[in-house]
Amino acid sequence: NDQKFSNRVHGSSFAHRGELRKTKRIVVKLGSAVVTRGDECGLALGRLASIVEQVAMLQNQGREMMIVTSGAVAFGKQRLRHEILLSQSVRQALHSGNGQHKEMFVPALEARACAAAGQSGLMALYEAMFTQYSTCTAQVLVTNLDFHDDEKRQNLNSTLQELLRMNIVPIINTNDAVVPPPEPNIDLQGVNVISIKDNDSLAARLAVEMKADLLIALSDVEGLYNSPPGTDDAKLLDIFYPGDQQSITYGTKSRVGIGGMEAKVKAALWALQGGTSVVIANGTNPKVTGQVITDILEGKKVGTFFSEVKPAGPSVEEQTEMARHSGRILASLHPDQRSEIISHLAELLTERKDEILAANKMDMEMAVRRLPPAMLKSLSLSSAKLSSLAVGLRQIAVAAQDSVGRVVRRTRVAPGLELEQVTVPIGVLLVIFEARPDCLPQVSALAVASGNAFLLKGGKEAANTNRVLHQLTQEALSLHGVREAVQMVNTHEEVEDLCRLDKMIDLIVPRGSSQLVRDIQRAAKGIPVLGHSEGICHVYVDADANVDKVVKIVRDSKCDYPAACNSMETLLIHREIVRTPMFDKIIEILHNEQVKIHSGPRFASYLTFSPSAASSLRTEYSDLECCLEVVDGVQEAVEHIHKYGSSHTDVIVTENKETAERFLQQLDSACVFWNASSRFADGYRFGLGAEVGISTARIHARGPVGLEGLLTTKWVLRGDGHTVADFSESGSMKYLHENIPVEQNLTGQQLAFMLASFLCPVSKALIDVL
Fold first, then answer.
1. 569, 556, 591: which is closest to 676 by C-alpha?
2. Interval 346-390: pLDDT, tens
3. Statement: the pTM of the whole predicted model exceeds 0.90
4. What are the entry keywords (predicted)?
5. Where do the domains of the chain lie, and which CATH numbers do they carry?
6. pLDDT for 217-233, tens place per residue?
7. Is residue 565 packed enough to be buried (19+ CB in 10 Å), middle (13-18) or exposed (0-12)?
């Protein structure tokens, strides 16, 4: 187990959160607010049990764990209060003959006496808890002298080293029964000396002394804020650098304990200077307490991480702020300006194709041995693919003329009081895509057209291609001063961490495997996710189907691009077709295309020697494989799809119009087709120009999500001193609620585009010239 953890030379702390996975020796400091209950009399047993479980698990993985704990005073206070109250109760029972009882009074308890009474009980509790995980513990009480006296310090170091060597968890605390009261406002004494005036400074001193890789300081706040938590502009700092001290305003200390946040920061910086990484996090929040320590060690964004290395570029939070600011300017541009940006990006895709393809070639060479064929196809770009992208972008440029600010509805509420519903951007969207660089220009164009700000997180497999495409996108955006509206996230942020930025991101759009979408849907607790977790698409071949159409549609739906989410995964056959020439033709075409067939239970019963049984009727193969099942008719096909489908895209092949309409009306999927391949479920093929994804959600956008799906609305009310009181029983006004027709203002570019659709090629050429 030890081999997977770092054996680094102590002296330099970790630069990034992701490196915390390699930590071996860890000090966990439990503040008074974490260990004690809200009434400060007794221990928070639930929180302690969770922390003990995490520490024991990490210890058993081969790490070396040490705990610096508070709690002796609180535990002792509880015991002494109980003893005093019991004593008074007994005394009253013995001496009160008239049955009257005086109100019992508990005097102020001296902290050192409480500590003396609580130390043994606290240690017994830890020992009992760790025993449940077959983990041994040892108590170590220290004072300032143990660090300032060289001989005592060496003895302490030797003792702790030996305990760690024997796989024992040392539980360390200041000996509060003998230490003098804390002296307030004594700063930490330089590099070599730190006053042990609270458990923060003790944990820092101990971590450096023991050459620990990481110090985790748990308290009752989420981490370090730039101003006192609860104030209007307070922001939790994900990373804190030593040079940022001047930008922090400290508040009061926690409800218990003797160290405030300022003391924690000073202790953390002292430990950081000594070569130990530090994270300050919340150990009291029930939503995160269950995994706070393990989350930190997995590199997740929990609390505040102290780092000496400041990255060259902006943080993802700063990128989000920049994107939102530029996005608002983008939304206020004239439609012609937004169209001009998109058209220029389309031109750059063809003008700079050699630069794009050279970067893509580098990505392909590195990925060819690591990625499956389907992902390699997604990663690959060609001149034809770039030309097709440019055509789609020009479609979006036309649509951008009438997107943001379009009046959807107009109502005269009362004389002089008019209400409008107007389209507006959603805000800041996070688009996460895997090895699909063609997504970048598509979604960037949609961002411009809809006036949204986009954060893009691409797969590392396409890093070179994405970098070039993003540079071209920013070049196009610079035409009208909105270069920062589309940001590429290149930091060490994990996808799960990005999904937690619920105060900064308005919508997440995942583009990739069903596993990626599921992971994001689980991680994004506070942010809506637009997408589909699976693409289990069906093609139902009816008894009245035309054999030639069946062959074309089945081949195209499965074999055109098997990895696509709109590829057929289950083929449903009407039972009357089984053992007919049409059925033989279907099997022949699948066999010729090397499609592996998995039989459903009903189909298997028809055959003596059936293909391999489908492990599940709810499988997305994303390859040259499909399930084949038999049904009695259209009603059973609809029921089968409702039970096993994913509400993505489903097809019926039949010449019977009544049967087809029944299928189209009853089936509850985002896309339902009659005599057409499932592969048509695509934003470009629908004439949307491009799509950010396909949604199977029940609200907002559904199916291929193009420009319209990236807009929401706001209500604009224009009055002249109107008040609600004017419409009361005694008021002078009455509601009209008259619908006012909405004028459709077409731009010259849109009108030309529409005319070109109807006129002959010669007329279209003339319009292009004009």
1. 556
2. 999 999 999 999 999 999 999 988 888 778 888 999 999 999 999
3. no
4. Amino-acid biosynthesis, ATP-binding, Kinase, Mitochondrion, Multifunctional enzyme, NADP, Nucleotide-binding, Oxidoreductase, Proline biosynthesis, Transferase
5. 17-88+110-179+193-306 (3.40.1160.10), 316-404+423-523 (3.40.605.10), 537-691 (3.40.309.10)
6. 998 888 888 877 777 77
7. buried
